[in-house]
Amino acid sequence: MATRGEDQDLVAQVANSLGKGKLTDTQKQVRVVPCFGWHPWFSHQIIQDDLASSDLSSTDSKRTHYKKVLTPSPDDEDFISALPDPKPLSQFISETRERLLAYPSALVGEIGLDRSFRLPNPWTQEEIKNRDKSLTPGSREGRSLSPYRVHMDHQKAVLRAQLHLAGELHRAVSIHSVQAHGVVFDVLKELWSGYERKRPSRRERTRRRSAELAHAGSDIEEDGKNHPPEPTGQPPLPFPPRICMHSYSGPPDPIKQFLKRENPSDVYFSFSSVINFSGPSAQKVIDTIKALPDDRVLIESDLHTAGPVMDDMLEEVARNICKLRGWPLHDGVQRFADNWKRFAHG
């Protein structure tokens, strides 16, 4: 899952190298689902097109952009000069569209809003000297934090553009939300306006069920195998069909608005041990997990590395949620698998 500029090609490389493994007698096919998106922690590095000049590397253009999107507006010229040259939003969306088209199973993420994040201070010479060069550049890596945050209006503009793209290509999204669940919902509600679902009548439900059964029967060919349906050619939408509120840390009450029947997007909630089952908010998350419908619960590691530690974290959160909801472990893991397939692939 990509979060910033340095990640985009790396995610594609991983998908190319691990997503096309060959089946052998002793090894199962290796597969990954790539995700392309721009995280709110790095949203200041994106410039809205109505503010972009022809030369984004110019000192004046760069300064104007960062003084507008950061709050408080920075007067520290050294701080501004250490920031990367901003990338036009339209260019990023165009590049991401091409990546999503190249990977039909790819999702949009990680995107979202964050009220608490502060930009790190520029690198010191000592920090550069001692930096772990095995890490992908671009993250904080332990640097002290500045007083500067990304203006919420700018974060919303970057989020909205990516949600539009996900709707255009009918891809699911992973949304990061810290102290911003209400604002995220307001953005989604704005995009959903005019597309709300209407509850079908009993006659319509019966007719639809009959049609689904007939269609299912027609999919079974003479060879006895089920064949995947043909692409439907659905028109683009201004919102994604499915949404995951990842490592959701909010209280139970706000989930009701995300799960309203009329919302045209299906909203899921994922949980991780590293974020949700530690600290003073653990009880709040427990109450939230207990309040969710069975078919909207997902699990994740929320780690930046793969391997045994990630596997252990996934097992831990799976066991915790199964225990909280009273699910036998095997049944619960099957639910997580079914929910994931429905979220990721529809």
UniProtKB/TrEMBL annotation:
Entry-linked InterPro entries: Metal_Hydrolase, Metallo-hydrolase/TatD-type, TatD-like
Domain of life: Eukaryota
Pfam families documented for this protein: TatD_DNase
Composition skew (Basic residues), residue ranges: 199-208
Pro residues biased stretches: 229-241
Regions that span the bilayer: none
A molecular function GO annotation: hydrolase activity, acting on ester bonds
Region spans: Disordered: 124-146, 198-246
Gene3D superfamilies: Metal-dependent hydrolases (3.20.20.140)
Protein's name according to its UniProt entry: Cut9 interacting protein Scn1
